[in-house]
Amino acid sequence: MTTYKLLVLPGDGIGPEVMAEVEKIAAFLTYEGFVKFEVEKGLVGGSAYDVHRCAISEDDMERAQAADAVLLAAVGGPKWDNVPYELRPEAGLLRLRKDMQLFANLRPAICYPALADASSLKREVVDGLDLMIVRELTGGVYFGEPKQIIDLGNGQKRAIDTQVYDTYEIERIGRIAFELARKRRNKVTSSEKRNVMKSGVLWHEVISALHVREFPDVQLEHQLADALGMQLVRRPKQFDVIVTDNLFGDMLSDVASMLTGSLGMLPSASLGERNATTGARKALYEPVHGSAPDIAGKGIANPIAMISSLGMALRYSFNMDDLADRLDRSIARVLEKGLRTADIAGGATKTISTSEMGDAILEELKIAVH
Ligand SMILES: NC(=O)c1ccc[n+]([C@@H]2O[C@H](COP(=O)([O-])OP(=O)(O)OC[C@H]3O[C@@H](n4cnc5c(N)ncnc54)[C@H](O)[C@@H]3O)[C@@H](O)[C@H]2O)c1
Ligand SMILES: CC(C)[C@H](C(=O)O)[C@@H](O)C(=O)O
Ligand SMILES: [Mg+2]
């Protein structure tokens, strides 16, 4: 059996709390012989800053590059509000994404039937929702230069962020979206703001040309990003795959999370290019949510986004779709039984803790795999 190297980065805030639940499941899968993980642990974000005075050490960067998959929970928090900008917790996550060239961020938003009433929208709007946001992750305004604050010397300052996209960056993320759509409901919605941004003009042009050249069988539509935000809360089931840039993808995925009941439900996979000979690709799996400082340390965070991120690792890094399906079904069953963490409680009076939710999913998984 192949041994997979897994680097676990719990990070800050609720990060270690939700990661502990994934570690239980990974230990179970290893113990039962489904998969052999060689697990190493590292530091990222504020927890790395406290020890190394940087948001990720060179040693942990090397281990991330060598891993078959990295699992990261969350970084950031008010404790590090005053550290220098370059050393802030989020810089560790951004460096992992950039240095590992994880350009494709897959953020599925699925509304489990049992949670249709937990959404802030009406049941009929979200029931059966299953969409995939494909977010470009290594370009755009997150990394464009110049990025600076200049003192103008007259009591004024000027802040500059730069949105940059090259043809190849748009093409490769577009290809991921079209290929995914072919395995789903065969529809891609591409989103930008070509009405005000040059990068939007190029985005639209490149995605349209790629469609004609390589994916004419897939339905393609374009929606301006502001209108798409509106459509996401108006009629979200019209979408199958949404492909968009780094910043719009960040915002739209937080919006999409509320369609599923909570930000605590959304997993993600950040993937690099496949190696042409081995087929392997660098990968990092993390929930869409952050370190949730408002609930950290209380043991009430929802671990489902983190656990589903392990599911995505089984699917996209370890070729174990069947096991991933069983894990997803175990989550669905726990929700069908009415078990709820506080964020998805809706009207329910009884809620369970982070570890009780992890245990309940593990118990269902034990049944699902035997
Ligand atoms: N991938 C990451 O590491 C990541 C992602 C987003 C934000 N952040 C960082 O996290 C910090 C806090 O940011 P924020 O408060 O804007 O966003 P957040 O995602 O941490 O929290 C937003 C809201 O959602 C709730 N929430 C989030 N995850 C939850 C979960 N699993 N269970 C229950 N409730 C949950 C929080 O309690 C909070 O009310 C910031 O430093 C930010 O930069 C990190
Ligand atoms: C923490 C932050 C850098 C990150 C982002 O903006 O990409 C987060 O919001 C996310 O959605 O993964
Ligand atoms: Mg975000």
From TrEMBL:
Keywords (A to Z) from UniProt: Amino-acid biosynthesis, Branched-chain amino acid biosynthesis, Cytoplasm, Leucine biosynthesis, Magnesium, Manganese, Metal-binding, NAD, Oxidoreductase
Domain Isopropylmalate dehydrogenase-like span(s) in chain numbering: 5-361
Catalytic reactions on record: (2R,3S)-3-isopropylmalate + NAD(+) = 4-methyl-2-oxopentanoate + CO2 + NADH
Primary residence: cytoplasm
Pfam families: Iso_dh
Cofactor note: Binds 1 Mg(2+) or Mn(2+) ion per subunit.
Annotated positions binding Mg(2+): D226, D250, D254
Class in the EC hierarchy, top level: oxidoreductase
Biological process, per Gene Ontology: L-leucine biosynthetic process
Annotated site residue numbers, Important for catalysis: Y142, K193
Protein's pathway: Amino-acid biosynthesis; L-leucine biosynthesis; L-leucine from 3-methyl-2-oxobutanoate: step 3/4
Enzyme nomenclature, EC number: 1.1.1.85
Magnesium as UniProt keyword: yes
Cofactor(s) of this protein: Mg(2+); Mn(2+)
GO molecular function, one term: NAD binding
Recorded superkingdom: Bacteria
Binding site for NAD(+): 77-90, 290-302
PROSITE patterns registered for this protein in UniProt: IDH_IMDH (PS00470)
GO CC entries: cytosol
Family per similarity comment: Belongs to the isocitrate and isopropylmalate dehydrogenases family. LeuB type 1 subfamily.
Chain's role: Catalyzes the oxidation of 3-carboxy-2-hydroxy-4-methylpentanoate (3-isopropylmalate) to 3-carboxy-4-methyl-2-oxopentanoate. The product decarboxylates to 4-methyl-2 oxopentanoate.
Subunit note: Homodimer.
Protein name, entry field: 3-isopropylmalate dehydrogenase
Gene that encodes the chain: leuB
